[in-house]
Amino acid sequence: MKKTMLLFLLLSVTALQGQEINNFIHPEGYEPGKWGELGEVKEFGSGDKSMILLPGWGFDLTIFQNFIEQYKSDFKIYAVTLPGFGNTSAPPMPKDSASFQGLNWTKGILNGIDRLIEKEKISDAILVSYFTYSNMIAMRFALDNPDKVSKVIVISGMAKFTSNYPSYEPRNLNQRIAYVERFLGPQWFKTVDKATWDNGNFHKKVFAKDSIRSLGYWNMMSSVPIPTAVRYLCEYYCTDLSLEYSELKVPVLVVLPSFTEELLTQTETSYLTTFFHHSWLGARPGSDSISIITLTDTNAMIVDDQPEKLYGVINEFLEDKLNAYQVVR
Q1: From CA 276, how far away is CA 291, in angstroms rounded?
Q2: Which residues is 151 bridged to in the sheet?
Q3: Per-residue pLDDT of the chain (329 residues; tens, 9 = 90+)
Q4: pTM surpassing 0.70?
Q5: What is the phi/psi pair of residue 127, to 5°?
Q6: Distance from chain centroid for Cα 306
Q7: CB contact burial 144-169 (16+ within 10 A = b; e otherwise)
Q8: Per residue, what are the HEC states of the chain?
Q9: Which domains are present in the chain?
């Protein structure tokens, strides 16, 4: 994701891509699922309150395993896999597969969450997002359905895609949409091949401090078919929820990884500060409902690196005892 999203900004390798590739359609023989349905939902626990867990871009519900063990005695937990991730099927491609501003797949997930809440008669759900993209789902649902959500917890999410290169940062949402639909989509994502995509994805070291576990996360993420990843990424790019922070009626906790000094200073991973920290600039001024805490000694999968710190902050938030001014822990 990192070099993939940075290199296309410089137009440096477009000529290397295979023009016969079309990542705007599913691979031949691929059997898509149904629009508006979640990929998978598993239930845990039996508490009076309910949590809906949303794993991020490329991951399935198994990344919440330790989190579920921590909270299943107090909450009824619905762990979701977004359609197309893990072993689930992505939705059908929309008729205009080269357009992303309609957020077809994103709206399908929102529909699936709404149907889950109605079916299970969930009231005052707590939405928990883990890693990027799913935070946009959680925030969007809370903005649209404040009567159905009591709190939102965002773990290691990017508020929006923010470029390392300020001169390439679209100035408003319409420019962001035009940028992806006129350039990024047709001139990069449509024809990017697997080797280039993997080489430009999040670095294999960014997920967990334990290198073996970090590689396992990378392998899970990279197993997603490129057309599925492209669709979600381009729809993500066509959003900017920071424009709506002032309308939030639901408390939101954002817990960010600090990352190691090595990762923050290396050229190949220098995007981490921009993506995970700078993207949230303006969130606190934009809404008193948003609290942002950075946990030290952590990579992206905070549940692996500092579970006790994370659970401590989350528990404070759930009990309305969070010290939102203690921004680094």
Answers
A1: 15
A2: 126
A3: 554 444 444 443 444 444 589 999 999 999 999 999 999 999 999 888 999 999 999 999 999 999 999 999 999 999 999 999 999 999 999 999 999 999 999 999 999 999 999 999 999 999 999 999 999 999 999 999 999 999 999 999 999 877 656 556 677 899 989 999 999 999 999 999 999 999 889 999 999 999 999 999 999 999 999 999 999 999 999 999 989 999 999 999 999 999 988 898 898 898 898 899 988 988 888 899 999 999 999 999 999 999 999 999 999 999 999 988 889 99
A4: yes
A5: -95, 130
A6: 20
A7: ebeebbbbbbbbbbbbbbbbbeeeee
A8: CHHHHHHHHHCCCHHHCCCCCCCCCCCCCCCCCCCCCCCEEEEECCCCEEEEEEECCCCCHHHHHHHHHHHCCCEEEEEEECCCCCCCCCCCCCCCCCCCCCCHHHHHHHHHHHHHHHHHCCCCEEEEEECCCHHHHHHHHHHHCCCCEEEEEEECCCCCCCCCCHHHCCCCHHHHHHHHHHHHHHHHHCCCCHHHHHHCCCCCCCCCCCHHHHHHHHHHHHCCCHHHHHHHHHHHHCCCHHHHHHHCCCCEEEEEECCCHHHHHCHHHCHHHHHHHHHHCCHHHHCCCEEEEEECCCCCCHHHHCHHHHHHHHHHHHCCCCCCCCCEC
A9: 2-318 (3.40.50.1820)
One-letter amino acid at 138 equals: A
Q: Do β-strands 290-295 and 252-257 pair in parallel, antiparallel, or remain unpaired?
A: parallel
The answer to whether 233 and 127 are in contact (CB under 8 A) is no
**If you search the block for the tokens 């599913």, which residue do you land on?**
26
Burial label, 273 (beta-carbon count in 10 A; 0-12, 13-18, 19+) = middle
